[in-house]
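Bug report (template v2)

What were you trying to do?
Predict the complex of my protein with nicotinamide-adenine-dinucleotide.

What happened?
Run completed; filing so the output is reviewed.

Input:
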Amino acid sequence: MKILVTGGAGFIGSNFVRLIYYERPNWVITIVDKLTYAGNLNNIADLDKNRVKFVKADICNANAINKFIKENDIVVHFAAESHNDNSLQNPYPFIKTNLLGTYNILEGIRKYNKRLHHVSTDEVFGDLSLNDPKKFTPDTPYNPSSPYSATKAGADMLVRAWIRSFGIQATISNCSNNYGPYQHVEKFIPRQITEIIEGRKPKLYGNGLNIRDWIHTDDHSSGVLAIIEKGIVGETYLIGTNNEKSNKEVIQMILKLMGKDLNDYEHVSDRPGHDLRYAIDSSKIKNDLGWKPKYIDFEQGLNDVINWYIENKNWWEYQKHQTELKYNKII
Ligand code: NAD
Ligand code: TDX
């Protein structure tokens, strides 16, 4: 199998590449990544370059990527602008990469008749109320709230249209909030861990009652692999591990695990349009494809991630400085 991974130098893309590298030693891996502020070659530095070919390219440039789509059997499409707060400051890169970039991938897939797996998010469904007994399912109507989630929803719609109108061989996955090593420090969990390491207080948006359904990135990657190998073309699968926690609960777990006082955090301004709650019903991928998550104990997973950030300060120090400069302009 020759596999092309877009966004393979990012947080989840690099985790997926590492899974394939170790679990599918006969597969030939090519990464295309633009290396935006979020892409980092250090994320894949431990992998043998003879087995993982890296190409610096922008998915918005069809000519730059078509050659690689043609040479591979399957494209797994992770590349995206991924941070909600950035999309509220400047939506344009989200429109370009998430919509135009996905369109280019789809046209390449159609032209060369290749298989596609498109990686998306639960945010396309909008949010749930705090006590709604329902969770998101593959049939939940789309109702995105932010420029980020609207562009991801648009990209999913394009994939669905290309499946129906042109008969391309594609699957889609919508996953919940990921945590794990190599996550950019702009995101909630690494931001709070690194704030504490640097001697500042974690920052909770609004009242902190917003709920996210946390999954370890290893489990997201194994879900994507299960879909590639066993999924039915044309289908959408939701990936999640039944792990709903309020932001306040997560901050207090991090404080506890790092030996701090549980109230040693600060409230900062809320995110405009802040989604209240996400929750995934993952019974389809579990029942139909036999997928099972590895990380059941969130506190244990969080503790491992805290230790990773403590031990890998040189990986995050520079991006931390840049990120906090950006946040300080907003708040
Ligand atoms: P990330 O921001 O860490 O990585 C994105 C990668 O894409 C980076 O390496 C970046 O350089 C690359 N990229 C961006 N624009 C590009 C372009 N125009 N051309 C080529 N490469 C480009 O993001 P992530 O958190 O790893 O998310 C990966 C995917 O998973 C995204 O599609 C995201 O929507 C989806 N997702 C993320 C989460 C989450 O919790 N982080 C949850 C569900 C789904
Ligand atoms: O400093 C913070 N304080 C805070 O309270 C930050 C950065 C975030 N938050 C809150 C906002 C959210 O309710 O924490 C929650 C999680 O925030 P993010 O890490 O920015 O994630 P979210 O906006 O939920 O989106 C994430 O999950 C779905 C990813 O960034 C997306 O790429 C993915 O699609």
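What did the reviewer find?
The pocket of thymidine-5'-diphospho-beta-D-xylose (ligand 2) is lined by residues 82-84, 121, 123, 177, 187-188, 191, 203-205, 210, 212, 247, 271 (CB under 6 Å). The first strand starts at residue 2 and ends at 6.
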